Amino acid sequence: MSAAGHISSLGPAEAQLDGPPDPEGQKRGWAGYLLLLPGGLWLLLFFVVPTVTLVATSLYDPAGSLQLGYQMTWHWQNYVDALQDYGPQFVRSLIYASIATIACILLGFPLAYAIAFKAGRYKNLMLVAVIAPFFTSFLIRTLSWQYILGDNEPLVSLLRTLHILGPDGYLLATPFAVVTGLTYNFLPFMVLPLYASLEKIDPRLIEAGADLYASPITTFRTVTLRLAMPGLVAGTLLTFIPAAGDYINSELLGNPQTRMVGNEIQDLFGAGDYPTAAALSVTLMSAIVLLVFLYVRRAGTEELV
Amino acid sequence: MGTDLQLTSVTKRFGAFTAVDDLDLTVPQGSFFALLGPSGCGKTTTLRMVAGLEEPTTGTIMLGEDDITRLKPYKRPVNTVFQSYALFPHLTIGDNVAFGLKRQGKKDVAAKVTEMLALVELEHLAKRRPGQLSGGQQQRVALARALINQPQVLLLDEPLGALDLKLRRQMQLELKSIQTEVGLTFVHVTHDQEEAMTMADTVAVMNEGRIEQLGPPEELYEAPATTFVANFLGQSNLVSGSVAGARGDVIDLDVQGTRVVADKARARVTSGEVWAGVRPEKVYLSSAGHDDGSGVNTLSDGVVSDVSFVGVSTQYLVRMAWGQELTVFEQNTGARERFRAGDKVDLHWRPEHTFLLDASQDASAGVEREDA
Questions:
Q1: Residue A301 clears pLDDT 80, i.e. is over it
Q2: Residues 224-253, chain B: which have Cβ within 8 Å of A?
Q3: Whether B95 contacts chain A with CB within 8 A
Q4: A187–chain B nearest CA distance, Å
Q5: Per-residue pLDDT tens for A265-277?
Q6: What are residue B326's DSSP bridge partners?
Q7: pLDDT in tens, A153-179
Q8: What is the mean pLDDT of chain B?
Q9: If we measure between CA atoms, which residue out of B195, B235, B234, B200 comes closest to residue B214?
Q10: Once rounded to an integer, what is the mean pLDDT over residues A93-119?
Q11: Domains and CATH numbers, chain B
């Protein structure tokens, strides 16, 4: 036993013995930066510059226009106006995105679990089935839901017959339709990272849970779910973030009362009101970053790395 | 109050494959029991059935007075040290060890965890995670995590398989001393015959879902019951012969034209065709024609075909007149000269070291192949 203890105590001491980096190591350091260059340039050009431009636009004088040009006047009032005019849409976006994300978890977790542990030789087939809808355009898939949920289509007729919907009840052009569309469109983004996390779990850990007096439910809670957290967090982000900014589902499946912040931003850009559109975009971005930050801290995934 | 583990005619089939075939086994309380066999012999399946991770197709498993055959694993007073440990990567060492106690709603978990980590000398690592530990340390955490629950039976599934040779030898002695200290029943599954013999009070050699032989290590080694045991546990020279007669406690044999004597006590068959066996280290060599006294068995006119020096001993291959190569181990005491390839030698051993096996068995059963 003492020998093994010895090994562990040697570790840090050895690390301290490391001298200054040799020339060979420095060369390797440069190679690292060179490799970062293409990606770094890409980020600079297509992320940093647009973001700075967007933030700058949000502070322009709204009296300007694309034709006349804009004046940078640090016009913070843009934010106040945007939130006053579009507060409800903003809150609605976050609520719809949250509901869709929760629905994706409820639908996606059992699916990912089944693919990871129960699918056997059908595993790849099921994964392909999850990804297959991507071969069709996002727009067409969303438009198809107009038929599925349409007033004269089988689903609504059935629900009317069963008295789940009233005789004049309908599904299309409701918040339900918008959230359904969001859930449908972003489900693969929940399933795939969850699958990746679940698939990595050694089945012996689940046996070890059972061996150590944990019932299947307790084992799921204390072992499986904890080990699936990285996938769950990634899936939540990949679902919530685009869902909160989405406008297609609301546009095609909703009504004027289900408009989301994405719809307003799109309209404002279309109408040439760049400063307000930019202010609304920056607000949405900030809100998402804040929520994501709080969520990741709460989920505590850094423990798992 | 005995809580012996008792398996009665247990069979486990996976589809058409029979992993465990009508197994009867009793493990006395407090013993260190080893299930030894090559991979695929059913030893791990047997262990998993005791743990509750597999359900027997037929048969019963009793723990003391309780039938646990169909009891869920989390309701059994049995814990397992898994092969490659299966430590929870998201929990600290302390939380890993505490896992079983917490699930049972026990009190004073923290104090017991500290005590258990002290037993395996890892108390300073309680806050670390499994990924930060060496293989030997992880092995001890796995042991502590199982032992802390004070199971009636502790199951060990190749627990030392992932360790390097030196650490493995050290852990063997430690496991044995921990078992003596805590006094629990240990059932140890291994394919390493040396490991089984070093640690266990009783060894059961398994092959193709059945137990070939069961007993204390010395008994299995000195008086193997089958060619499989003779070859799997150490090495054996098996020479075909026939029984010529019996007188008193001994049996006279005709082995390739030479008279050889065996004790009845080690004879599994007492008539007809036999395999006459002798362990390589029981045999000593002399130059051909150099009579080494009476009362010993002698096979003459061998030619040394290969000499390997392995430090403590020298291993000779000796080609006999009938074409078979026999193995002889000689301690390097330095008192005797070493033979060289091509030397003509006679082989000698004491009659009581001869064991007789039924000639209907395959003489190469259980020989460890190089690719194994």
A1: no
A2: none
A3: no
A4: 27
A5: 999 988 888 999 9
A6: B318
A7: 999 999 999 989 888 889 999 999 999
A8: 91
A9: B200
A10: 96
A11: 5-222 (3.40.50.300), 250-358 (2.40.50.140)
Sequence letter at residue A212: L
Q: Is the pLDDT of residue B33 over 90?
A: yes
User: Confidence class of residue A20 from pLDDT cuts 50, 70 and 90?
Assistant: low
Residue A245 token pair: 């900014």
Cα end-to-end span (Å), chain A: 28
Ramachandran category for residue B260: left, alpha or beta (phi over 0 → left; psi -120 to 50 → alpha): beta
pLDDT at B288 over 90: no
Instruction: State yes or no: pLDDT of A149 exceeds 50.
Output: yes
Do the chains contact at A213 and B174, CB–CB below 8 Å?
no
Nearest to B137 among A4, A223, A229 (CB): A4
Partner-chain contact A8 B149, CB within 8 Å:
no
For B312, the 3-state DSSP assignment is coil
pLDDT at B78 over 90: yes
| In the predicted structure, residue A7 carries a pLDDT above the cut 70 | no
> Which residue is it, tokens 């009581």?
B352
Check: CB of residue A220 under 8 Å from CB of residue A188: no
- How far is A227 from chain B, CA to nearest CA, in Å? 7
**Which band of pLDDT confidence, cut at 50, 70 and 90, is reported for residue B108?**
very high
User: In Å, what is the CA distance from A15 to each residue of A2, A21, B34, B127, B315?
Assistant: 21, 13, 42, 20, 45
User: For residues A296 and A235, is the Cβ–Cβ distance under 8 A?
Assistant: no
pLDDT value for B127: 94
Can you tell me the mean pLDDT for B133-149? Answer: 92
Q: Are strands B250-255 and B237-247 parallel, antiparallel or unpaired?
A: antiparallel
A-proximal residues of B, 140-159, CB under 8 Å: 140, 145-146, 149
Q: How far is A207 from chain B (nearest CA, A)?
A: 7
Residue B232 pLDDT > 70, yes or no?
A: yes
Which of A8, A202, A222 lies closest to B134 in CB terms?
A8
Give me the pLDDT at residue A26, please: 59
Tell whether B119 is within 8 A of chain A (Cβ).
Answer: no
CB-nearest partner of A212 from B72, B79, B84: B79
CATH superfamily of A88-304: MetI-like (1.10.3720.10)
CB contact under 8 Å between A211 and B73, yes or no, is yes
- Tokens 């007492």 — which residue? B270
Tokens describing residue A201? 């779990």
Which residues, 6 or more positions from A191, have their beta carbon under 8 angstroms from its beta carbon? A108, A111, A112, A115, A130, A235
* CA separation for the pair A83, B313 (Å, rounded): 89
A203 touches chain B (CB under 8 A): no
CB count in 10 Å sphere of residue B63: 23
Which residues face B20 on adjacent strands?
A: B12
Q: Using the beta-carbon criterion (under 8 Å), do A227 and B89 form an inter-chain contact?
A: yes
Sorted by sequence, the CB contacts under 8 Å of residue A287 that are 6+ apart come out as A90, A94
Per-residue pLDDT of B157-193, as tens digits, reads 998 887 888 888 888 888 888 898 888 999 999 999 9
Contact B88 A208 (CB under 8 A): yes
